[in-house]
Write a structure and sequence with these properties.
Elements (H helix, E strand, L loop, with lengths): L1 H23 L24 E6 L7 H7 L10 E3 L10 E3 L1 H4 L9 E6 L10 H18 L6 E3 H4 L12 H13 L1
Parallel strand pairs: 1-4, 1-5, 2-4
Antiparallel strand pairs: 2-3
Helix pairs in contact: 4-6
Length: 181
Protein backbone atom coordinates (compact mmCIF):
# COMPACT_ATOMS: atom_id res chain seq x y z
CA UNK A 1 0.00 0.00 0.00
CA UNK A 2 2.79 2.42 0.77
CA UNK A 3 4.35 1.93 -2.65
CA UNK A 4 1.03 2.78 -4.29
CA UNK A 5 0.73 6.01 -2.23
CA UNK A 6 4.28 6.96 -3.15
CA UNK A 7 3.64 6.41 -6.86
CA UNK A 8 0.40 8.41 -6.70
CA UNK A 9 2.13 11.39 -5.03
CA UNK A 10 4.99 11.20 -7.55
CA UNK A 11 2.54 11.20 -10.47
CA UNK A 12 0.62 14.21 -9.10
CA UNK A 13 3.86 16.11 -8.45
CA UNK A 14 5.18 15.39 -11.95
CA UNK A 15 1.90 16.59 -13.49
CA UNK A 16 1.96 19.82 -11.49
CA UNK A 17 5.59 20.46 -12.45
CA UNK A 18 4.79 19.92 -16.13
CA UNK A 19 1.93 22.44 -15.96
CA UNK A 20 4.19 24.95 -14.21
CA UNK A 21 6.89 24.57 -16.83
CA UNK A 22 4.42 25.05 -19.69
CA UNK A 23 2.97 28.26 -18.22
CA UNK A 24 6.31 29.58 -17.02
CA UNK A 25 7.88 29.23 -20.46
CA UNK A 26 4.95 30.96 -22.17
CA UNK A 27 4.36 27.90 -24.29
CA UNK A 28 0.65 28.69 -24.42
CA UNK A 29 -0.20 30.89 -27.43
CA UNK A 30 -1.63 34.33 -26.73
CA UNK A 31 -4.96 35.27 -28.28
CA UNK A 32 -4.67 37.40 -31.41
CA UNK A 33 -6.08 40.45 -29.60
CA UNK A 34 -3.19 40.41 -27.15
CA UNK A 35 -0.42 40.53 -29.74
CA UNK A 36 1.25 43.95 -29.92
CA UNK A 37 0.92 46.05 -33.04
CA UNK A 38 4.21 47.13 -34.56
CA UNK A 39 4.89 50.63 -35.78
CA UNK A 40 6.74 51.73 -38.89
CA UNK A 41 9.98 51.52 -36.90
CA UNK A 42 9.25 47.93 -35.82
CA UNK A 43 8.74 48.78 -32.15
CA UNK A 44 5.68 47.50 -30.32
CA UNK A 45 2.97 50.17 -30.38
CA UNK A 46 -0.59 49.68 -29.25
CA UNK A 47 -3.26 51.80 -30.85
CA UNK A 48 -4.39 54.58 -28.51
CA UNK A 49 -7.77 55.12 -30.12
CA UNK A 50 -9.88 55.40 -33.24
CA UNK A 51 -10.52 58.57 -35.22
CA UNK A 52 -13.53 58.95 -37.54
CA UNK A 53 -13.27 61.21 -40.61
CA UNK A 54 -15.28 61.87 -43.76
CA UNK A 55 -13.98 62.64 -47.23
CA UNK A 56 -16.31 65.71 -47.29
CA UNK A 57 -17.51 64.82 -50.79
CA UNK A 58 -20.76 63.27 -51.95
CA UNK A 59 -19.00 60.31 -53.54
CA UNK A 60 -15.82 58.34 -53.10
CA UNK A 61 -14.07 55.06 -52.46
CA UNK A 62 -10.71 53.88 -51.18
CA UNK A 63 -9.44 53.94 -54.76
CA UNK A 64 -10.46 57.56 -55.44
CA UNK A 65 -9.21 58.76 -52.04
CA UNK A 66 -5.93 56.95 -52.60
CA UNK A 67 -5.58 58.60 -56.01
CA UNK A 68 -6.38 62.06 -54.59
CA UNK A 69 -3.66 61.60 -51.95
CA UNK A 70 -1.09 59.93 -54.22
CA UNK A 71 1.39 62.81 -53.78
CA UNK A 72 1.23 62.28 -50.00
CA UNK A 73 1.77 58.52 -50.05
CA UNK A 74 -1.81 57.42 -50.68
CA UNK A 75 -5.01 57.32 -48.67
CA UNK A 76 -4.28 58.41 -45.10
CA UNK A 77 -7.00 56.13 -43.70
CA UNK A 78 -6.90 52.54 -42.51
CA UNK A 79 -10.52 51.90 -43.55
CA UNK A 80 -13.01 53.60 -45.88
CA UNK A 81 -16.76 52.92 -45.62
CA UNK A 82 -18.71 53.45 -48.84
CA UNK A 83 -22.01 55.29 -49.21
CA UNK A 84 -23.23 53.58 -52.39
CA UNK A 85 -21.68 55.97 -54.92
CA UNK A 86 -18.36 54.47 -56.04
CA UNK A 87 -18.63 51.37 -53.84
CA UNK A 88 -21.51 49.54 -52.21
CA UNK A 89 -23.36 51.28 -49.39
CA UNK A 90 -21.79 50.16 -46.12
CA UNK A 91 -18.87 48.37 -47.78
CA UNK A 92 -15.79 48.49 -45.55
CA UNK A 93 -12.63 48.81 -47.63
CA UNK A 94 -9.40 47.90 -45.88
CA UNK A 95 -6.55 50.17 -46.94
CA UNK A 96 -2.88 49.33 -47.33
CA UNK A 97 -2.05 51.26 -44.15
CA UNK A 98 -4.10 48.73 -42.16
CA UNK A 99 -2.60 45.73 -43.90
CA UNK A 100 0.87 47.04 -43.01
CA UNK A 101 -0.35 48.45 -39.66
CA UNK A 102 1.23 51.79 -40.54
CA UNK A 103 0.19 55.10 -39.07
CA UNK A 104 -2.14 57.38 -40.98
CA UNK A 105 -2.31 61.15 -40.52
CA UNK A 106 -2.26 60.69 -36.75
CA UNK A 107 0.46 58.41 -35.47
CA UNK A 108 -1.28 56.61 -32.62
CA UNK A 109 -4.85 56.05 -33.84
CA UNK A 110 -6.73 53.88 -36.29
CA UNK A 111 -8.37 56.12 -38.88
CA UNK A 112 -11.71 55.42 -40.53
CA UNK A 113 -13.24 57.51 -43.32
CA UNK A 114 -16.97 57.66 -43.99
CA UNK A 115 -17.60 58.56 -47.62
CA UNK A 116 -19.92 61.54 -47.85
CA UNK A 117 -20.39 65.21 -47.10
CA UNK A 118 -21.57 64.87 -43.51
CA UNK A 119 -22.18 68.60 -43.25
CA UNK A 120 -25.06 68.13 -45.72
CA UNK A 121 -26.39 64.67 -44.85
CA UNK A 122 -26.17 61.92 -42.27
CA UNK A 123 -24.20 58.75 -42.92
CA UNK A 124 -26.45 56.13 -44.51
CA UNK A 125 -27.96 53.49 -42.24
CA UNK A 126 -25.75 50.85 -43.82
CA UNK A 127 -22.66 53.05 -43.33
CA UNK A 128 -23.50 53.62 -39.66
CA UNK A 129 -24.14 49.90 -39.10
CA UNK A 130 -20.88 48.97 -40.85
CA UNK A 131 -19.00 51.61 -38.84
CA UNK A 132 -20.35 50.29 -35.56
CA UNK A 133 -19.57 46.66 -36.48
CA UNK A 134 -16.02 47.65 -37.47
CA UNK A 135 -15.58 49.67 -34.26
CA UNK A 136 -16.75 46.75 -32.11
CA UNK A 137 -14.27 44.45 -33.87
CA UNK A 138 -11.39 46.91 -33.49
CA UNK A 139 -12.21 47.65 -29.85
CA UNK A 140 -12.17 43.92 -29.07
CA UNK A 141 -9.08 43.02 -31.12
CA UNK A 142 -6.95 46.02 -30.19
CA UNK A 143 -8.28 46.49 -26.62
CA UNK A 144 -9.49 50.03 -27.25
CA UNK A 145 -12.24 51.36 -24.96
CA UNK A 146 -15.24 52.97 -26.70
CA UNK A 147 -14.39 56.24 -24.94
CA UNK A 148 -11.38 56.46 -27.26
CA UNK A 149 -13.52 56.56 -30.42
CA UNK A 150 -13.45 60.19 -31.51
CA UNK A 151 -14.55 62.35 -34.40
CA UNK A 152 -11.60 64.26 -35.84
CA UNK A 153 -13.29 67.48 -34.68
CA UNK A 154 -13.12 66.24 -31.06
CA UNK A 155 -9.37 65.74 -31.28
CA UNK A 156 -8.42 68.84 -33.28
CA UNK A 157 -9.81 72.28 -32.54
CA UNK A 158 -11.09 74.24 -35.50
CA UNK A 159 -11.63 71.12 -37.62
CA UNK A 160 -15.20 70.36 -38.70
CA UNK A 161 -14.57 66.78 -39.82
CA UNK A 162 -16.42 64.43 -40.20
CA UNK A 163 -19.30 66.95 -40.25
CA UNK A 164 -22.25 68.22 -38.24
CA UNK A 165 -24.46 65.24 -39.15
CA UNK A 166 -22.09 62.68 -37.62
CA UNK A 167 -23.06 61.90 -34.01
CA UNK A 168 -19.90 60.76 -32.22
CA UNK A 169 -21.61 60.45 -28.82
CA UNK A 170 -24.31 58.17 -30.22
CA UNK A 171 -21.70 56.05 -31.99
CA UNK A 172 -19.70 55.63 -28.76
CA UNK A 173 -22.86 54.73 -26.82
CA UNK A 174 -24.00 52.20 -29.44
CA UNK A 175 -20.55 50.57 -29.57
CA UNK A 176 -20.35 50.43 -25.76
CA UNK A 177 -23.79 48.77 -25.67
CA UNK A 178 -22.76 46.22 -28.32
CA UNK A 179 -19.55 45.45 -26.45
CA UNK A 180 -21.53 44.96 -23.23
CA UNK A 181 -23.52 42.08 -24.71
Amino acid sequence: MRLFDFLLVALITATLLAVLVVFHNDAMPYPVAMQPVTSDAGKARPWAGILVHSNRARKGSLKSIDLAHSADGGAPFHFVIGNGTETADGLVEEGPRWKLERAGQNRDVIEICLVGDLDREKPTRKQQAALEALLVRLCREKLIPPTEILAESEKKRGVACPGRFYDAERTRADVAALLGR
